[in-house]
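F.,

This is the one I mentioned.
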């Protein structure tokens, strides 16, 4: 079992190692849509690449989620076949958001450095696919709220 400090140091090393392995400026929060963000998520045993819709404005959230649902088949067929659409995704803090995500299928444990490289490759490929999807459908998605 790791102490909080040891776990924090391992998490920091994980993210630093990823940044050094794939030094690239990702889109992430720069979608030009407030509270519509791409994220890398890694905890002790799971790794995800996500598109989170998490505004306090529930109507805006629903409009954006429904707009992405309109092009769901494109996302699945042309970019990320195993993407999951979750309209009621609970975060660890209790907040419920709309999350569109893909999960790393291989073995992963944040505390086992031998499993990191597979996740790094997954992060790189999955986020690249999400960004290409967004680039191709950005104008369509923005129509929901602009």
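My design for it:
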């Amino acid at each position: 079992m790791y102490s909080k400090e040891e776990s924090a140091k391992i998490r920091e090393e994980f993210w630093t190692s990823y940044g050094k392995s794939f030094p690239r400026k990702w889109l992430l929060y720069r979608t030009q849509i407030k509270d519509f963000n791409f994220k890398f998520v890694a905890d002790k045993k799971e790794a995800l690449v996500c598109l989170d819709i998490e505004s306090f404005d529930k109507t805006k959230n629903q409009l954006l989620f429904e707009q992405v649902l309109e092009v769901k088949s494109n996302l699945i067929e042309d970019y990320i076949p195993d993407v999951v659409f979750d309209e009621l995704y609970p975060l660890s803090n209790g907040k419920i958001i709309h999350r569109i995500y893909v999960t790393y299928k291989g073995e992963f444990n944040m505390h086992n450095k031998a499993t990191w490289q597979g996740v790094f490759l997954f992060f790189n490929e999955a986020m690249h696919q999400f960004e290409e999807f967004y680039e191709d459908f950005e104008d369509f998605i923005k129509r929901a709220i602009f």
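The longest helix spans residues 116-142.

Talk soon.
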